[in-house]
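Explain this fold:

***
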Amino acid sequence: MVPSTVEPTSTAERVSSLLRRRPPRESVEWALRNVEPSGRVSSVVPLRGGRSHANHAIRIEAGGSVREVVLRRWVRADWQDGDPEFSPTQEVATYDLLSSSSVPAPRLIAADVAGGECDVPAILITRAPGARLTRPPDMRSFLAQLAQALPLVHGIDPARARATVPPYRPYYEHERLSRPDWTRMPAAWDRAIALAAGPELAEPAAFIHRDYHQGNTLWASGRLSAIVDWTTASWGSRGVDVAHMRANPAMAFAVETADAFLEAYRAVVGASYRHDPYWDLRVAVDFLPDVPSDGWSAAELGRLDRFVARAVAAL
Protein backbone atom coordinates (compact mmCIF):
# COMPACT_ATOMS: atom_id res chain seq x y z
CA MET A 1 0.00 0.00 0.00
CA VAL A 2 1.27 3.46 -0.86
CA PRO A 3 1.34 5.72 2.22
CA SER A 4 -1.20 8.50 2.14
CA THR A 5 0.15 11.95 1.29
CA VAL A 6 -3.12 13.76 1.93
CA GLU A 7 -2.51 16.89 3.96
CA PRO A 8 -4.67 17.48 7.07
CA THR A 9 -7.59 19.71 6.17
CA SER A 10 -9.14 21.06 9.37
CA THR A 11 -7.42 23.56 11.63
CA ALA A 12 -7.34 21.02 14.46
CA GLU A 13 -5.73 18.42 12.19
CA ARG A 14 -3.13 20.90 10.96
CA VAL A 15 -2.24 21.94 14.50
CA SER A 16 -2.02 18.32 15.66
CA SER A 17 0.24 17.47 12.74
CA LEU A 18 2.45 20.47 13.45
CA LEU A 19 2.80 19.61 17.14
CA ARG A 20 3.71 15.98 16.48
CA ARG A 21 6.03 16.51 13.51
CA ARG A 22 9.62 15.53 14.20
CA PRO A 23 11.86 18.53 14.98
CA PRO A 24 14.28 19.42 12.16
CA ARG A 25 17.88 18.31 12.40
CA GLU A 26 19.24 21.65 13.62
CA SER A 27 16.93 21.64 16.64
CA VAL A 28 17.81 18.07 17.61
CA GLU A 29 21.52 18.82 17.19
CA TRP A 30 21.15 21.91 19.38
CA ALA A 31 19.66 19.73 22.11
CA LEU A 32 22.49 17.22 21.77
CA ARG A 33 25.15 19.94 22.04
CA ASN A 34 23.63 21.21 25.26
CA VAL A 35 23.35 17.79 26.88
CA GLU A 36 26.27 15.68 25.68
CA PRO A 37 28.08 16.76 22.49
CA SER A 38 29.90 13.43 22.26
CA GLY A 39 26.70 11.41 22.60
CA ARG A 40 24.15 10.25 20.08
CA VAL A 41 20.41 10.71 19.80
CA SER A 42 18.70 7.32 19.92
CA SER A 43 15.07 8.47 19.78
CA VAL A 44 12.84 11.52 19.37
CA VAL A 45 9.26 10.94 20.51
CA PRO A 46 6.35 13.44 20.51
CA LEU A 47 4.65 13.99 23.85
CA ARG A 48 0.96 14.65 24.42
CA GLY A 49 -0.33 18.06 25.36
CA GLY A 50 0.55 21.51 24.16
CA ARG A 51 -1.27 23.96 21.92
CA SER A 52 1.44 26.37 20.89
CA HIS A 53 4.34 24.16 21.92
CA ALA A 54 5.56 20.97 20.28
CA ASN A 55 7.01 18.78 23.02
CA HIS A 56 9.41 15.96 22.14
CA ALA A 57 11.26 13.58 24.43
CA ILE A 58 14.83 13.13 23.22
CA ARG A 59 16.85 10.16 24.39
CA ILE A 60 20.62 10.69 24.36
CA GLU A 61 23.17 7.94 24.89
CA ALA A 62 26.81 8.54 25.79
CA GLY A 63 29.48 6.46 27.52
CA GLY A 64 27.06 3.73 28.52
CA SER A 65 24.61 6.14 30.18
CA VAL A 66 21.25 7.40 28.97
CA ARG A 67 19.68 10.79 29.54
CA GLU A 68 16.22 11.92 28.51
CA VAL A 69 15.31 15.57 27.98
CA VAL A 70 12.30 17.45 26.63
CA LEU A 71 12.53 19.88 23.73
CA ARG A 72 9.76 22.50 23.81
CA ARG A 73 9.37 24.48 20.57
CA TRP A 74 7.00 27.38 19.84
CA VAL A 75 5.92 25.97 16.49
CA ARG A 76 2.66 27.83 15.91
CA ALA A 77 3.31 30.96 13.92
CA ASP A 78 0.38 32.70 15.65
CA TRP A 79 1.45 32.07 19.26
CA GLN A 80 2.26 35.77 19.74
CA ASP A 81 -1.29 36.69 18.76
CA GLY A 82 -2.93 34.26 21.17
CA ASP A 83 -0.64 34.38 24.23
CA PRO A 84 2.05 37.04 23.78
CA GLU A 85 2.87 37.25 27.49
CA PHE A 86 3.51 33.52 27.76
CA SER A 87 6.65 33.74 25.66
CA PRO A 88 9.87 31.69 25.59
CA THR A 89 11.52 34.46 27.60
CA GLN A 90 8.75 34.27 30.20
CA GLU A 91 9.02 30.49 30.47
CA VAL A 92 12.78 30.71 30.97
CA ALA A 93 12.20 33.20 33.79
CA THR A 94 9.64 30.88 35.38
CA TYR A 95 12.02 27.93 35.31
CA ASP A 96 14.66 30.13 36.88
CA LEU A 97 12.27 30.74 39.78
CA LEU A 98 11.58 27.01 40.08
CA SER A 99 15.29 26.16 40.14
CA SER A 100 15.67 27.97 43.47
CA SER A 101 12.76 26.09 45.06
CA SER A 102 11.96 22.60 46.29
CA VAL A 103 8.99 22.29 43.91
CA PRO A 104 9.15 18.93 42.09
CA ALA A 105 9.39 20.18 38.52
CA PRO A 106 11.60 19.88 35.42
CA ARG A 107 14.72 22.05 35.36
CA LEU A 108 15.93 24.27 32.53
CA ILE A 109 19.00 23.08 30.60
CA ALA A 110 19.22 25.59 27.74
CA ALA A 111 17.16 28.16 25.87
CA ASP A 112 17.07 29.60 22.36
CA VAL A 113 14.41 32.27 22.85
CA ALA A 114 15.04 33.93 19.49
CA GLY A 115 15.16 30.73 17.45
CA GLY A 116 18.66 31.53 16.24
CA GLU A 117 19.98 27.99 16.51
CA CYS A 118 16.75 26.03 16.34
CA ASP A 119 14.07 26.33 13.68
CA VAL A 120 11.83 28.27 16.09
CA PRO A 121 12.12 29.60 19.66
CA ALA A 122 12.80 26.67 21.97
CA ILE A 123 13.81 25.60 25.44
CA LEU A 124 15.36 22.37 26.67
CA ILE A 125 14.35 20.95 30.06
CA THR A 126 15.03 17.79 32.03
CA ARG A 127 12.50 15.01 31.59
CA ALA A 128 10.92 14.27 34.93
CA PRO A 129 10.34 10.61 35.82
CA GLY A 130 6.88 9.11 35.85
CA ALA A 131 3.65 9.32 33.88
CA ARG A 132 0.23 10.89 34.17
CA LEU A 133 -2.11 8.96 36.45
CA THR A 134 -5.58 8.75 34.94
CA ARG A 135 -6.98 6.10 37.31
CA PRO A 136 -5.52 6.58 40.79
CA PRO A 137 -5.63 3.30 42.73
CA ASP A 138 -5.79 5.20 46.03
CA MET A 139 -7.77 8.43 45.66
CA ARG A 140 -7.15 9.53 49.24
CA SER A 141 -3.36 9.32 48.84
CA PHE A 142 -3.58 10.85 45.35
CA LEU A 143 -5.40 13.95 46.59
CA ALA A 144 -3.25 14.22 49.72
CA GLN A 145 -0.04 14.33 47.70
CA LEU A 146 -1.47 16.94 45.33
CA ALA A 147 -2.44 19.02 48.36
CA GLN A 148 0.99 18.64 49.97
CA ALA A 149 2.80 19.88 46.86
CA LEU A 150 0.77 23.05 46.41
CA PRO A 151 2.21 25.07 49.34
CA LEU A 152 5.68 24.52 47.85
CA VAL A 153 4.48 26.31 44.72
CA HIS A 154 2.85 29.15 46.63
CA GLY A 155 5.90 29.49 48.85
CA ILE A 156 8.26 30.60 46.07
CA ASP A 157 9.92 33.92 46.96
CA PRO A 158 7.11 36.47 46.57
CA ALA A 159 9.28 39.46 45.69
CA ARG A 160 11.00 37.61 42.86
CA ALA A 161 7.79 35.98 41.70
CA ARG A 162 5.83 39.22 41.52
CA ALA A 163 8.59 40.76 39.42
CA THR A 164 8.87 37.71 37.17
CA VAL A 165 5.48 36.31 36.24
CA PRO A 166 2.44 38.17 34.82
CA PRO A 167 -0.62 38.85 36.97
CA TYR A 168 -3.40 36.29 36.89
CA ARG A 169 -5.94 36.81 34.16
CA PRO A 170 -8.83 34.71 32.84
CA TYR A 171 -8.47 32.67 29.67
CA TYR A 172 -11.67 34.13 28.22
CA GLU A 173 -12.95 37.48 27.00
CA HIS A 174 -15.99 38.47 29.06
CA GLU A 175 -18.05 39.72 26.14
CA ARG A 176 -17.70 36.40 24.30
CA LEU A 177 -19.03 34.25 27.12
CA SER A 178 -22.44 32.65 26.87
CA ARG A 179 -24.33 29.93 28.65
CA PRO A 180 -23.38 26.48 27.25
CA ASP A 181 -26.13 24.86 25.21
CA TRP A 182 -25.53 21.45 26.82
CA THR A 183 -26.22 22.54 30.40
CA ARG A 184 -29.13 21.32 32.45
CA MET A 185 -28.52 24.07 35.00
CA PRO A 186 -28.79 27.31 33.01
CA ALA A 187 -29.43 29.55 36.01
CA ALA A 188 -26.22 28.38 37.68
CA TRP A 189 -24.16 29.14 34.58
CA ASP A 190 -25.82 32.55 34.16
CA ARG A 191 -24.75 33.39 37.72
CA ALA A 192 -21.23 32.08 37.12
CA ILE A 193 -20.80 34.12 33.93
CA ALA A 194 -22.16 37.27 35.57
CA LEU A 195 -19.79 36.82 38.50
CA ALA A 196 -16.81 36.22 36.21
CA ALA A 197 -17.59 39.39 34.26
CA GLY A 198 -17.48 41.45 37.44
CA PRO A 199 -14.53 42.69 39.50
CA GLU A 200 -12.02 40.12 40.67
CA LEU A 201 -12.16 38.98 44.28
CA ALA A 202 -9.40 40.76 46.22
CA GLU A 203 -7.20 38.27 48.05
CA PRO A 204 -3.49 38.10 48.98
CA ALA A 205 -1.43 37.00 45.97
CA ALA A 206 1.36 34.48 45.53
CA PHE A 207 3.19 32.61 42.78
CA ILE A 208 0.63 30.21 41.28
CA HIS A 209 0.81 27.45 38.68
CA ARG A 210 -2.41 28.82 37.18
CA ASP A 211 -3.44 25.43 35.70
CA TYR A 212 -2.83 23.08 38.63
CA HIS A 213 -4.63 19.78 38.15
CA GLN A 214 -3.92 16.07 37.95
CA GLY A 215 -3.27 16.19 34.20
CA ASN A 216 -0.26 18.42 34.80
CA THR A 217 1.44 16.06 37.22
CA LEU A 218 3.60 12.95 36.82
CA TRP A 219 3.64 9.92 39.10
CA ALA A 220 6.11 7.10 39.72
CA SER A 221 5.41 4.09 41.95
CA GLY A 222 2.39 5.80 43.46
CA ARG A 223 4.27 8.99 44.34
CA LEU A 224 3.97 12.48 42.84
CA SER A 225 7.24 12.94 40.96
CA ALA A 226 6.75 16.25 39.13
CA ILE A 227 4.45 19.15 38.36
CA VAL A 228 4.69 20.08 34.68
CA ASP A 229 3.42 22.63 32.14
CA TRP A 230 4.38 25.95 33.74
CA THR A 231 3.54 28.04 30.68
CA THR A 232 0.83 30.10 32.38
CA ALA A 233 2.45 30.52 35.82
CA SER A 234 1.14 33.77 37.28
CA TRP A 235 0.91 36.08 40.28
CA GLY A 236 -2.52 35.63 41.82
CA SER A 237 -4.72 34.17 44.54
CA ARG A 238 -3.99 30.70 45.89
CA GLY A 239 -7.68 30.09 45.33
CA VAL A 240 -7.05 29.84 41.57
CA ASP A 241 -4.86 26.75 42.00
CA VAL A 242 -7.15 25.24 44.64
CA ALA A 243 -10.16 25.72 42.37
CA HIS A 244 -8.45 24.12 39.38
CA MET A 245 -7.54 21.17 41.56
CA ARG A 246 -11.15 20.94 42.69
CA ALA A 247 -12.81 21.29 39.29
CA ASN A 248 -10.66 18.94 37.23
CA PRO A 249 -10.93 15.78 39.37
CA ALA A 250 -14.59 16.62 39.98
CA MET A 251 -15.12 16.29 36.22
CA ALA A 252 -12.80 13.34 35.75
CA PHE A 253 -13.81 11.20 38.72
CA ALA A 254 -16.68 12.44 40.90
CA VAL A 255 -17.97 15.79 42.11
CA GLU A 256 -17.23 14.76 45.70
CA THR A 257 -13.47 14.73 45.00
CA ALA A 258 -13.61 18.55 44.98
CA ASP A 259 -14.44 18.57 48.67
CA ALA A 260 -12.03 15.73 49.39
CA PHE A 261 -9.18 17.75 47.89
CA LEU A 262 -10.14 20.86 49.87
CA GLU A 263 -10.15 18.79 53.06
CA ALA A 264 -6.69 17.42 52.20
CA TYR A 265 -5.40 20.92 51.45
CA ARG A 266 -6.70 22.29 54.75
CA ALA A 267 -4.95 19.44 56.53
CA VAL A 268 -1.70 20.80 55.09
CA VAL A 269 -2.12 24.59 55.34
CA GLY A 270 -4.41 24.76 58.34
CA ALA A 271 -8.13 24.45 58.99
CA SER A 272 -8.51 28.23 58.99
CA TYR A 273 -8.01 28.39 55.21
CA ARG A 274 -11.25 29.57 53.62
CA HIS A 275 -11.79 28.74 49.99
CA ASP A 276 -14.20 31.12 48.30
CA PRO A 277 -16.54 29.41 45.78
CA TYR A 278 -16.06 32.49 43.61
CA TRP A 279 -12.83 30.88 42.34
CA ASP A 280 -14.62 27.62 41.51
CA LEU A 281 -16.93 29.59 39.24
CA ARG A 282 -14.09 31.59 37.67
CA VAL A 283 -12.32 28.33 36.85
CA ALA A 284 -15.48 26.67 35.50
CA VAL A 285 -16.10 29.61 33.17
CA ASP A 286 -12.47 29.29 32.04
CA PHE A 287 -13.40 25.91 30.55
CA LEU A 288 -16.18 27.19 28.29
CA PRO A 289 -14.14 28.25 25.24
CA ASP A 290 -12.58 24.78 25.00
CA VAL A 291 -15.59 22.58 25.69
CA PRO A 292 -16.56 22.04 22.02
CA SER A 293 -13.02 21.13 20.94
CA ASP A 294 -11.77 19.10 23.89
CA GLY A 295 -14.13 16.17 23.38
CA TRP A 296 -15.49 15.93 26.91
CA SER A 297 -18.01 13.17 27.53
CA ALA A 298 -21.61 13.71 28.56
CA ALA A 299 -20.73 12.33 32.00
CA GLU A 300 -17.91 14.86 32.42
CA LEU A 301 -20.14 17.73 31.35
CA GLY A 302 -22.82 16.55 33.76
CA ARG A 303 -20.32 16.56 36.62
CA LEU A 304 -19.15 20.05 35.62
CA ASP A 305 -22.79 21.17 35.71
CA ARG A 306 -23.15 19.86 39.26
CA PHE A 307 -19.85 21.42 40.29
CA VAL A 308 -21.05 24.83 39.12
CA ALA A 309 -24.46 24.43 40.78
CA ARG A 310 -22.80 23.48 44.08
CA ALA A 311 -20.48 26.49 43.89
CA VAL A 312 -23.39 28.87 43.23
CA ALA A 313 -25.28 27.37 46.18
CA ALA A 314 -22.23 27.90 48.40
CA LEU A 315 -21.86 31.60 47.58
Remarks:
- The domain at 17-126 is CATH 3.30.200.20 (Phosphorylase Kinase; domain 1).
- DSSP finds twelve helices and nine strands in the chain.
